[in-house]
Every structure is written in structure tokens, then in C-alpha cells.
């Protein structure tokens, strides 16, 4: 990029910020074209400084997942107005949008352009081309620094959580002291203050679990101070410690028998252990579980235990069964034949309180006028294959709202979500749900999650006769868009299995399978950024109603599954040469002298557990799991050299899994499989 163009782009960003403050009439110099100025819809009417009567022409769209490049081409066909991008090949071209515009009274191009600027968070500039005006959607820095931004947000969340985890020790101290209190003292101190603690101290089984936990304070304190998360950091559900049955004292056995309703023979089994787990949000739970729960003899063991700590989370409330147990522990008599009705009443009360809290939160998240709120609340929708609870498929709900209310819907279509994510309805059998338009759209709005970003979510509201939506955390999602060359590779894999376009348009389902080489499954995803590996499969790269795009989405998710789960290991595998891959597929690649220093660093980074002692690669081997491959999966293991040799035998791989660190990486089936079903 030459200096003049660099200066131009810098000026664009400055002008955009100035425009927000109403100072948009500064001119944008371009060395190779007429001057451009920030476009203002209010100045484009007759008599305005940017007057253009062509913008009064109506435009018609009823499409989901259409790229801005296609939108602009169709606008020019409909109105004769040239809409372009600056620079010409800017990534804005690929951004998909959902457009459902009133078909009886189509909006003007001016109105649609104004809403598109808000939706994609980019300004239009206008310039005089020979004879008439042309408009350019300007480049954006929305995705700039997204990776660091996400890392900072996640780090802040984990720092706050680690502070809460350290409070667990002091909370257990409080439990230990409370165990010496009388029943009356416990009720007086904790009723209405800490109902969970009150329940755990009054209910005999929960009290027994509490006594066991407090007896093992030293083990608990050690793992809280140095929690070991899964390799690569990731987003762990939590962490925990295990106490084997061999160390159970008679007091332990007595408490665990009462707490979990299991016999002494079960608790004395060498394969039994006690687990204490801290969930990512700060809840602490006790479990008794077998070491190998998949074994048939444990199939009937119902081992999840009670929460001892849940008040570290925000807005925690007892569940209906816990509330029922607490009332009984406090002496309330509830006849068995009335328990079901009593429990249902409690569930309704809890649900009502939660709905009210959710209503208040949602009202603060969206921006709706009273008129739009009334219209959406009074408009019922009947949606197939859905239920009111989970997030609805955005384009399905938006299209239904546009059809029933007559409002124009303009939304970005970055995210691929909902019932057709994998080509078939989520709920199996046909289902319908009736809910208001407002309730349907509210399912798009979520609070920030453990990633430091919202779960797939929209910022939305109304502007005149438009409903408009844009993705929350736009910087993350824009940075996660898969590069065109990766999409071209996916299309090349699918192309031999797709019928010609005319036949494909008539089909409602598509099944195919094709082998995929392991090297391609590592090298191609290995070129993606961390954000592309992690979130690229959640994005929309075409109309989600079209069978070919549903198949492509399935293929993308399949091909980057391993990379999404283990990005650092993917980086390491992508660095292997052809010769190194032959060793991986053969007797194994020795980590201590067959890898370069850079490769060794990548591998250690992928294997190192947070809080664990530093790892070394001495006597470690990277090897293809032949047992898994025989069953149709690619899986990579990092284990000891002796275990790798043993793995050549028919039962060796199973035995090897119990010796040395296992880096099982099931990238996908050896065959890329697609079973797509188009929506009705």
C-alpha cells in the first residue's frame, strides 16, 4: 500500500469518528478519484447538499444470508444507483445480511442504506462519478485486534473467578464451624441469609457430605490454590480433586453411605473415588464416582452429589426440589400425595421470579420504541420445529416477524444458528410453538458468557418502520470469518458429489461421503487464526435455506472440529513435514530429537496444563492411534516410547492409554460425511 492510500484510510477512520459528533462534512481526498464526503441520509433529499432523487426509488429483497456484494449488484439493477466498496476488495463484500422488506410497500433505497450503515457498523461515502453520484461502503477496523481483545476479556473473567475460588477455603471454614452449632442456632444464623448452607446443615444426607468435605480440607485447599486445567487452557467447565477409596476412614465411609445411599462394599471398591469439583462459575459440588463409570457394574450408580457452594455465583436461587427439601428440613409437613402439586407450585414461583429478572435485563439490552414494543407483544407467531426456550433460528424468526407485522427487517447474517445447523430439525419430530414476536426476538439477546463475549447474540431495536439487528461482539465474529481460499477448498471437496444446479434446486436432502487425508486436516486448518479455528464454523457463508450451503456448513464444522477443540496442537501438527508425518503414521515421531526447537515449543505449549509442573519431551512419542483409525477416526497420541511400541499389538492401544499423557485428537471421521436436509 502506498503512502497516499495509507493516509486515505487513516483519514476515513478519523472522519467516521468525527461524523458521530456531527462533523461529517469534511472532505475525503482521493488521489485517483473525485473527492468523497461522508454520506448523510438527511442531506440526500431534494434541496440538500447531497440531493439524489434516485434514492427515493424502492428496493425489493426477501432473502436470508445474501452477501453485501450481491445486495449492491441487485440494488444497481433495480435502481441504477452504483454502490461499491472502498477499497474495492474489502472484506465487507463477503458479509452476509438478512433482508426481509415489506413486499406491499417496499422501502426506499435511502432508508435501506441508512439501516445497512448501522447494521454493519460502517459509513457510506458519496462521490461524483461522470454524470451522477456513486456510493462506497468504507473499510472498517472492527476486527482489528479482536484476538487480543478477547484474550483480555477472558483473562479478566478468570482473574475474578480465581478470586472467588480462593473464597471457597474460607467458606468451608465457616461450614466447619457451623457443624458445631445446634439446629436452632443454624436456623437463626442462616435462614434467609444463605439458604443453600442452611439446607446442607439441616438435611441429614447433605450434612454427611458436608462433614466428609470438611474432613478433607487440606486436599481441597491444595487444588484450589493450584487448579490444573486441561491442556491448551481452553474454557474448562471447572476443576477438581479425587480421593481414592483406599484412603477412606471409617468416618468417611459412614458419611458417604448416608450422603449417597451406597453400600460399604461399593465404597470399598478399589475403582471407587470421591470427587470434589469446582465449576467454572464458582459452584462447588461433591460426587462419589467410579474411576471407569462406563463399566457395566456401575451403570445403575446415581453418583452426582449436592452443591455445597453456589452462593459464589450471581443471582443464585435454590431449585424447586432443593426448596422442597429445605422446607421439609425446617419442619414443614408435606404429605406424599401432595408432593407433586407442591413441587409444581414451587417451580412456577421460581420460574416467575426468573422471568421477571430476565424481562428487566432484556429491556435494558434492546432499544425499542413503545410503538414497536406494543406491536411485537401483540403479534403471535406460530413456528414449526421449535420451542420457546432455546434461541430460535434468527432468519426464521426474523422472516416470520417481518411477514406478520409488515415491518422491514435488516439484519447482519454472520451467525449460522438454530434448527438447521446440521441439516435437520433440532427436535426430531415435528413440533410447533406459539409465542409473541417479541418473545421470539428476545431469544437472540444473551448476557456475556465464560468466553468474555456473549453467546451468539444480537443488538437490536427499531428505527421507524425498520427492525434492525447486528451481531454483538462484531469484532470477534468478523475476525473469525474463514478466508475465501479455505471455503474454496471445502467447495472443491463437495463439488464432485453435488448434482448440477438445476437438479440440486429441486432436491430437499443430500447425502455424501468422501475420504479426507489427515495431513490436509491439519495443514489447512493450521493456517487459520485462533479465532477462525475456534469460531469460523459458527459463521454463515451463504443462504441458510439452500441445500448446498447447508452441506457446506456441515463440511466446515467437520473439517475444523479438531482445530476448534485443540488449536495449539493443530498448529504443531501443521508444522510437521512430509517425512515427519511418515514417522507419525509408522513407529512414532520422537519428540526429543525428531522435532525442531520451534516444534518442541509448540508441542509443549499444547500439552502443558495450567498449574501443573513444567513438561519435558524426553522419551515422548507422537503417534497415529491405529486402533482409532481402524474404527474410522483420526486420532493423535503423545505417549511414552514404550507405550507406543506396545500400541502396535491388538490390545496395546487400550493399555497404553493408562500410561503416559494422552493427546487423543479425534479430528473427524476419516470420511467427510454430509447428510443435509433443506428447510421447508
Can you characterise this structure?
There is one protein chain. By secondary structure, this protein is of the alpha+beta class. Helix content is 43%, strand content 17%. It has 28 helices and 21 strands. The protein has a five-stranded mixed beta sheet with strand order 1-2-6-7-4. A five-stranded mixed beta sheet has the order 3-5-13-16-15, sandwiched between helices. Strands 8-9-10-11 form a four-stranded antiparallel beta sheet. Helix 4 (146-178) runs antiparallel to helix 8. It is globular, with a radius of gyration of 30 Å. It starts with a helix and ends with a strand.
In short:
The protein has 680 residues and is α+β, with helices and mostly antiparallel strands.
Q: Strand sequence of the main sheet, in spatial order?
A: 1-2-6-7-4
> pLDDT average, as an integer?
81
Strand content: 15-25%
Count of DSSP strands: 21
Shape type: globular
Question: Ranges with pLDDT <50 over ≥5 residues?
Answer: 1-31, 419-428, 648-663
Helical content stands at 40-55%
> How many helix segments?
28
**Structural class by secondary-structure content:** alpha+beta
| Spatial extent as radius of gyration | 30 Å
Q: How would you characterize the largest beta sheet?
A: 5 strands, mixed
Q: Separation of termini?
A: 48 Å
Defining key terms:
disordered N terminus, 5-stranded mixed beta sheet, 680 residues, globular, alpha+beta, single chain
Amino acid at each position: 500500500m502506498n503512502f497516499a492510500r495509507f493516509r486515505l484510510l487513516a483519514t476515513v477512520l478519523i472522519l467516521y469518528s468525527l461524523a458521530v459528533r456531527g462533523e461529517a462534512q469534511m472532505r475525503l481526498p482521493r488521489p485517483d478519484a473525485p473527492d468523497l464526503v461522508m454520506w448523510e441520509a438527511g442531506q440526500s433529499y431534494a434541496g440538500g447538499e447531497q440531493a439524489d432523487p434516485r434514492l427515493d426509488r424502492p428496493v425489493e429483497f426477501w432473502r436470508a444470508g445474501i452477501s453485501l456484494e450481491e445486495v449492491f449488484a441487485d440494488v444497481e439493477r433495480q435502481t441504477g444507483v452504483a454502490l461499491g466498496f472502498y477499497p474495492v476488495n474489502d472484506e465487507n463484500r463477503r458479509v452476509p445480511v438478512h433482508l426481509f422488506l415489506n413486499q406491499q410497500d417496499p422501502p426506499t433505497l435511502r432508508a435501506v442504506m441508512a439501516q445497512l450503515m448501522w447494521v454493519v457498523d460502517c459509513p457510506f461515502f458519496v462521490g461524483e462519478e461522470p454524470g451522477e453520484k456513486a456510493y462506497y461502503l468504507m473499510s472498517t477496523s472492527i476486527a482489528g485486534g479482536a484476538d487480543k481483545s478477547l484474550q483480555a476479556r477472558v483473562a479478566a473473567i478468570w482473574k475474578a473467578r480465581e478470586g472467588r475460588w480462593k473464597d471457597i477455603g474460607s467458606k468451608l471454614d465457616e461450614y466447619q464451624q457451623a457443624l458445631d452449632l445446634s439446629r436452632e442456632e443454624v436456623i437463626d444464623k442462616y435462614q434467609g441469609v444463605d439458604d443453600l448452607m442452611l439446607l446442607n446443615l439441616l438435611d441429614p444426607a447433605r450434612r454427611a457430605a458436608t462433614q466428609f468435605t470438611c474432613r478433607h480440607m487440606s486436599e481441597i485447599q491444595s487444588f484450589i490454590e493450584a487448579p490444573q486445567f486441561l491442556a491448551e487452557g481452553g474454557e474448562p467447565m471447572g476443576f477438581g480433586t479425587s480421593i481414592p477409596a483406599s484412603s477412606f476412614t471409617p468416618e468417611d465411609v459412614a458419611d458417604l453411605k448416608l450422603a449417597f445411599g451406597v453400600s460399604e462394599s461399593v465404597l470399598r471398591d478399589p475403582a471407587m473415588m470421591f470427587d470434589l469439583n469446582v465449576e467454572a462459575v464458582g459452584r462447588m459440588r461433591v460426587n462419589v464416582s467410579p474411576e471407569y463409570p462406563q463399566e457395566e457394574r456401575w451403570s445403575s450408580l446415581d453418583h452426582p452429589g449436592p452443591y455445597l457452594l453456589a452462593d459464589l455465583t450471581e443471582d443464585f436461587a435454590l431449585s424447586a426440589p432443593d426448596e422442597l427439601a429445605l422446607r421439609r428440613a425446617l419442619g414443614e409437613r408435606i404429605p406424599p400425595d401432595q408432593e407433586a402439586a407442591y413441587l409444581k407450585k414451587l417451580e412456577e414461583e421460581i420460574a416467575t421470579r426468573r422471568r421477571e429478572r430476565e424481562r428487566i435485563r432484556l429491556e435494558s439490552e434492546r432499544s425499542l420504541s413503545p410503538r414497536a414494543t406494543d406491536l411485537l407483544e401483540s403479534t403471535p407467531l406460530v413456528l414449526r420445529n421449535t420451542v420457546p426456550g432455546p434461541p430460535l433460528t434468527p432468519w426464521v424468526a426474523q422472516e416470520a416477524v417481518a411477514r406478520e407485522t409488515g415491518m422491514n427487517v435488516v439484519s447482519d447474517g454472520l451467525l449460522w444458528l438454530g434448527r438447521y445447523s446440521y441439516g435437520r430439525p433440532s427436535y426430531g419430530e415435528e413440533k410447533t410453538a406459539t409465542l409473541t414476536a417479541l418473545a421470539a426476538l428476545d431469544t437472540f439477546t444473551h448476557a456475556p458468557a465464560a468466553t468474555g463475549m456473549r453467546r451468539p447474540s444480537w443488538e437490536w431495536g427499531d428505527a421507524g418502520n425498520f427492525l434492525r439487528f447486528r451481531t454483538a461482539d462484531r469484532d470477534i465474529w468478523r475476525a473469525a470469518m474463514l478466508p475465501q481460499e479455505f471455503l474454496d477448498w471445502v467447495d472443491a471437496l463437495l463439488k464432485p458429489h453435488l448434482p448440477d444446479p438445476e437438479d440440486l434446486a429441486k432436491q430437499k436432502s443430500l447425502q455424501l461421503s468422501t475420504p479426507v487425508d489427515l495431513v490436509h486436516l491439519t495443514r489447512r486448518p493450521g493456517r487459520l487464526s485462533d479465532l477462525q479455528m475456534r469460531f469460523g464454523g459458527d459463521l454463515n457463508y451463504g443462504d441458510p435455506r439452500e441445500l448446498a450451503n447447508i452441506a457446506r456448513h456441515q463440511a466446515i464444522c467437520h473439517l475444523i472440529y479438531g482445530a476448534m477443540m485443540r488449536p495449539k496442537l493443530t498448529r504443531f501438527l501443521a508444522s510437521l513435514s512430509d517425512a515427519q508425518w511418515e514417522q507419525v503414521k509408522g513407529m512414532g515421531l520422537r519428540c526429543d530429537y525428531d522435532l525442531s526447537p520451534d516444534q518442541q515449543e509448540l508441542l509443549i505449549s499444547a500439552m502443558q496444563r495450567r498449574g501443573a509442573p513444567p513438561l519435558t519431551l524426553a522419551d515422548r512419542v507422537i503417534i497415529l492411534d491405529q486402533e482409532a483409525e481402524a474404527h474410522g477416526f483420526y486420532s493423535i497420541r503423545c505417549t511414552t516410547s514404550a507405550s507406543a511400541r506396545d500400541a502396535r499389538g491388538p490390545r496395546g492401544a487400550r493399555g497404553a492409554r493408562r500410561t503416559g499423557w494422552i493427546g487423543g485428537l479425534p479430528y473427524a471421521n476419516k470420511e467427510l460425511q454430509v447428510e443435509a436436509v433443506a428447510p421447508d
